Each structure stands twice: as C-alpha cells, then as structure tokens.
Predict the 3D structure of the following.
Amino acid sequence: MDENEVFPIDNEDDDVVVTLNLDDGSEVTCEILTIFELNEQDYIVLLPLDENGEENAEGQVYIYRYFEDENGSPSLDNIVSDEEYAAVSAKFDELYGEAIDDEE
C-alpha cells in the first residue's frame, strides 16, 4: 500500500488545506471536509481544489484511511477493499447529508 503524508499549507484560513502527493508524482491541493471514525478506524475526506483554489466542478472527493505515524505526523493510507470503501462512503454520505440539513 502506498502512504501519502499530509502537509498543511494554509494555517491562516478556517478551511484546512493540504497538498496530496499522488502515485503518479503529481500534486493536488485539497480542502479537508471531515475526519471521522468508523469501526475503530479514522477516515479523512478531501475535496480537490482547482488551480484557483476553488472547489472542483464535479464535486469529486478523495477518501482515505487517516492515522498519525510514529512521529505523530498525519498520514494517509489507501482503502483497498470495496466493502470497506462502500461502508465509509455510506457513513460520509450520512454525515454530509446531516451537515447540509443543518445549513438550511
């Protein structure tokens, strides 16, 4: 499994933004939407931003396992199981739906 370290790049803003190093060597800036726990595992949901720092038009998100390494640095790990991804996606949809309802 490939691990991706998360590096905050904007500490002045309320929205926490990180740079994600992808497997193909490219980088993408993402806003952290949420971190939540499911079955004793933490997960992080990242919203990729375009070159202007705006939300991507498709509403695409990245979901990863989230943990802190032995040095306490935040790190990510890929979700490899379809069943795990489906459960995590369903939980995010439930949380995100509640957040949208609270805003209305």
Remarks:
- Residues 1-13 have pLDDT under 50 and may be disordered.
- Residues 21 and 36 are 22 Å apart (CA to CA).
- DSSP finds one helix and seven strands in the chain.
- The first helix runs from residue 82 to 103.
